[in-house]
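in:
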């Protein structure tokens, strides 16, 4: 297995893990994980690519003013890169 395939497999496991935490513990589980992981930027990137995150986006954005800011910053960057209208939607929404 090549490096790219290994990275994709790791990404799949991470996504499944976050989805399982969301289903079993909700936002509190996501926040608990976010406060403990060292690879916190990967959490921000993953959150931006998971469907359930739309339900907790305002809470993630509140992390911008907290120790979890690197996760929120990565979330914002990934969302902006994947949808060039995202910033406008956020400004209207909040």
């Amino acid at each position: 297995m090549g490096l790219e395939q290994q990275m994709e497999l790791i990404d799949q496991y991470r996504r499944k893990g976050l989805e399982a935490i969301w289903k079993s513990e909700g936002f509190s589980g996501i926040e608990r994980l976010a406060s403990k992981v060292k690879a916190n930027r990967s959490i921000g990137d993953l959150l931006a690519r998971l469907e359930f995150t739309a339900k907790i986006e305002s809470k993630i954005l509140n992390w911008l003013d907290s120790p979890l800011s690197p996760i929120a910053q990565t979330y914002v960057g990934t969302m902006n890169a994947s949808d060039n209208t995202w910033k406008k939607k956020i400004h209207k929404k909040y």
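note: The chain has five helices and no strands.
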